[in-house]
């Protein structure tokens, strides 16, 4: 009964917000910027995972010496964020809010540990849930500084929310199945998405800030597998869902009015795809199988799914293979990773060309 009431509330409360936030999508064209690698090191690859509305980007670089979280800024380029434990050279950034606070995880003397980084305090451990093996990962942060991820409690892997007041609190699980839940993203209203086991399979979940936990369901004929990976301020959830009763996962978008829908695959795609990011205009990015292998995509309501390489007309993407897009901000900037002309894995930023941006839409939805 509680979950049904939650869905009814979602339909009423979020439907209007989605209408207000969605402007006319623009047919964007982009120019590509390779983000490079940490200076002075021997980095072998870099991957970008998130971008905020100020254009700050976070991710990780890897080399034979270890893996380090990075922050990239337009004025200064890429800088390393350090490590939880100086003797264990492993840290990975997963999200950044508009205040420049970064979350991720790394190795410490206790095990894998979630962290929060900011300019004033550096990298701080967030600990773990009580019980179980020490193992926590932070994957999302909103502008209020609320952090989500998954920890290891006495019940098993469990989604959590962390605040500076309450610390890390477990969010429980859906009804049925073995206990396992994971938080992946949080919007500025404090609504969380992720996935959890249920009596029907793996369900994409949505948690309201009053504690109401909702299973977002599945596509008709699917095999009851859905994963929430991103959420915008209109309450729309992007992620992956089983398609046609097979083991194939396709990118999906859920909202309270239309429910869950498949975004399909790029032309020639036969296997998996995932939607990793959605902005407040409803633009979705991710990766999809295609006739040319795995490719990063942009999905928009007015034209569906397009490979990112087809949206870069100025030649800046020549020689690149854009593999995965992880995030998109409200300015339409996209980050992810691909193979650069030298064949190395490198983080990229796609900037919309000025002529392609509707400035009135940007002002309205800032």
**Total of domains:** 1
- Please work out how many helical segments DSSP would assign: 2
Element string (H = helix, E = strand):
HEEEEEEEEEEEEEEEEEEEEEEEEEEEEH
CATH superfamily: TolB, C-terminal domain
Major sheet: arrangement of strands: 1-28-27-26
Task: Kindly name the structural category.
Answer: mainly beta
CATH class: Mainly Beta
Any idea of the CATH topology? Neuraminidase
Count of strand segments: 28
CATH architectural arrangement: 6 Propeller
Percent in strands? over 45%
Rg from alpha-carbon coordinates: 19 Å
Sum up the overall morphology in one term: globular
Query: How would a crystallographer describe the biggest sheet?
Result: 4 strands, antiparallel
Low-confidence regions: 1-5, 7-21, 356-366
Q: Kindly state the mean pLDDT as a whole number? A: 87
Q: Work out the helicity level.
A: under 10%
Explain briefly what this protein structure is:
Helix content is 7%, strand content 47%. The protein has 2 helices and 28 strands. The radius of gyration is 19 Å and the shape is globular.
Q: Secondary-structure blueprint of this entry?
A:
Blueprint (H helix, E strand, L loop, with lengths): L1 H20 L8 E7 L8 E7 L5 E7 L2 E8 L3 E4 L10 E6 L5 E7 L2 E8 L3 E4 L11 E5 L5 E7 L2 E8 L3 E4 L10 E6 L5 E7 L2 E7 L5 E3 L10 E6 L5 E6 L6 E7 L3 E4 L10 E6 L5 E5 L6 E6 L3 E4 L13 E8 L5 E6 L5 E8 L6 H6 L2
